[in-house]
Amino acid sequence: MKKLLLAGALIAPMIAAAQTAPANTAGNATNGKQLFMEKNCYYCHGTTGQGGRDGARLTATALNADGLIRYVRKPAGAMPAYTEKLISDQELRDVLAYLKSLPAAKAPKDIPLLNQISEK
Amino acid sequence: MAKSKKNSVNRRGFLKGAAVGAAAIVAGQNANAQTAPAQTAQTRAATALPSAGLARVETAAPPAADVYTTDRPGSDFMIDVIKTLGIEYVAANPGSSFRGLHESIINYGGNKAPELLTCMHEESSVAMGHGYAKIEGKPLMVMAHGTVGLQHASMAIYNAYADRVPVYIVLGNILDGQWRRSDVEWAHAVQDCAAMVRDYTKWDDSPISLSGFAESAIRAYKIAMTPPMGPVVLIADAVLQEEPVPDQDRARLRVPKLSPTTPPAGDTGGVNELAKLLVAAENPLIVAGRPARTPNGLKLLIELAELLQAPVIDRRQRMNFPTQHPLYGSGSLAEADFVLGLEVPDFYQVIHAQTPVNKMGMESRLLTKPTAKLATLSTVDLLTKANYQDFGRYNEVDLAIGADAEATLPSLIEACKKLITSDRRRAFDARGARYAEVAKQNQARSLQDAAWGWDTSPITTARMSAEIWNQIKGEDWSLVSDVVFQSFWPTRLWNFTKHHQFIGGHGAYGVGYGAPAALGAALANRKYGRLTVNIQSDGDLNYAPGVLWTAAHHKIPMLNVMHNNRSYHQERMYVADMAARAQRDVSRVGIGNDITNPNVDYAMLAKAYGMFSVGPIENPAELGPALKRAIEVVKRGEPALVDVVSQPR
């Protein structure tokens, strides 16, 4: 464990340097969708980021790229941390672009089945 | 019953006759061996024809010895005993060690009360009993080999034990080695059948006489049905089953009267103390595990919660509380100053958060205020064994009443009523209004959450649940599967009000429970004309899919909706945790977990077993019409399956 932490300490400046490199802040939604599936984000958050028992809704998230990266690197709760080794900052920007590309949900009153439940 | 003197033989007579008969067969076999070389190739090809030697044996004058028949095998008496218990069904995969009982059930007993159900796995037999008992409130009987059958059944027995559900298990065995006729019977015999499952059954016995069987059979039922309930095992020795009831025993054999034991109720001192704590608390919280054993338990818990205006956190292990009641899920552990656990098997886990797998260390964090008082009213403390650890962490509480919650609730309600002053009443009403508002917000949030991904494919579990609800809401329905794998959407969207509308889950989380337990519950629901709904996980069904045939064969109506996420999803998430922790390739964790390549066609599987089916449904717009078609079939008294390709959870 100590070795791992030491290695982490050595790698951290390199990561910081990489973070200062120019990045595609907009992200690539197509690549982001592929990553969202490949890296198994959808296990807990659903294929369209709708959320569920095991993960929060990510569609229409209020997070920006920095916020998402910060959270993924050091998540709260039961989510496992995805380090740079597993997914890069740029790839997370792509994931965010995918999430931002998804349509927002309709209001329940505009979905007949849900409206019926609300009017019970 | 008239006794056929002509054909009846005692054991000594049978042995004598057997010796003569065996000699004749050996002679015949020798003759056959001698003539075999003379057979032509054409004759050998026509194997359906008897050989010359066999033909000679079969057409010769019969031997002088009596043939072995009896009008009163011991298994008939065993069925006489079983019939007094009111057991409706026997679930079994056939096995030679209980062939005597099998024959007595179908012929002597007329295959009624109990009626034999053909199962394709002993695990299915027991799990059917598990689900059946949670609807019907009493056990069905399971028959199995004392060795290989019980080995198959053992996981399901553990589930039933951990869920405190009665299952009445009768095992066949040939205890006396002198009666084992072949290597098969030696391999299928055991000194102590029940040893393998003794750690997770309530009681067992191996009677060596019919009168002993009668007493133990009645005792086993009584023990199984006394809370805390649980599976029991009774050995029906094969020799006792198959040999005639000795003449001298016939007149004196009797079936003891069943004397049910009343459930243990809390003592007056403990109940009064609990009432004081409940009435004095500013924010009491009730946590319900399995307190509602019967419809009356549900009614009593509503009465207690409304009396105190105390919110209820339902652990969804039984149908304890209406899901759209203003007090359902509207309280929180964080604000509670008093928490009462009713029949909660994992109370410690309820009030603590454990360090998740992605964080360093292994600590428990108390979720209540440190000053909050804690109490349990439960039979959990009354049945604790050592080896299997389903008893969970030790609970440090302020008051622990070892009693059946449902049996104790009437006296607890009365004790509370005596203590409630008008001031307390006003305080209760005020907090009730607050919780009603929280419940309203919870319900609105559920609807809003369900709308996300509404038109997505794979279909969301929220959409799937809403579509099912749309089809069943006007029926007398019963959901007989757990909701944990669908992100709890049924309990978030549907209006559960009746006891038979939900039965909880596995007990010990042993996968393979779902499909057979649902079928057992559907069997119990059949006579009441209820529309049974089973949301079926794909991984679970694949343990023993033969239950689909059992459902079709016995015409047990039920709607199976496949929650087909094509994986053992829980395990997939765990392995993803491990990969992330090790900083290794998370994209590979489907290996060993995914059920793809090829995808399983569950509609085709159901058809192969003789069940109506639709699917796979991938387009959410097609789901409603598919469910409608399937329900039409179910209403005709048959099972049906709709395969829904779904989101992971």
Overall average pLDDT of chain B:
92
Distance between the termini of chain A: 56 Å
Uncertain regions of chain A: pLDDT < 50 for 5+ in a row? 1-22
Helix content of chain B: 40-55%
**Beta-sheet strand percentage of chain B?**
5-15%
| Secondary structure tally: strands of chain B | 18
Shape descriptor of chain A reads elongated
Number of strands of chain A: 0
Measured by DSSP, the beta-strand proportion of chain A falls in: under 5%
Oligomeric status of the shown chains? heterodimer
Tell the overall outline of chain B.
globular
Average per-residue pLDDT of chain A, rounded, comes to 84
The major beta sheet of chain B can be summarized as:
6 strands, parallel
- The largest beta-sheet of chain B arranges its strands as 2-1-3-4-6-5
Q: Which regions of chain B contain 5 or more consecutive residues with pLDDT less than 50?
A: 1-46
| Gyration radius of chain A, in Å | 17 Å
Short key terms for the protein model shown above:
heterodimer; A: 120 residues; mainly alpha; 6 helices; elongated; disordered N terminus; B: 649 residues; alpha/beta; 6-stranded parallel beta sheet; 5-stranded parallel beta sheet; 13% strand
Question: How would you describe this structure to a colleague?
Answer:
The complex is a heterodimer of chains A (120) and B (649). Chain A has 120 residues and is mostly helical. Chain A is elongated and about 50 Å long. The N terminus of chain A is likely disordered. Chain B is built from 24 helices and 18 strands. In chain B, strand 5, helix 9 and strand 6 form a beta-alpha-beta unit. With 649 residues, chain B is α/β, with parallel strands linked by helices. The interface between A and B is large, with 38 and 43 residues.
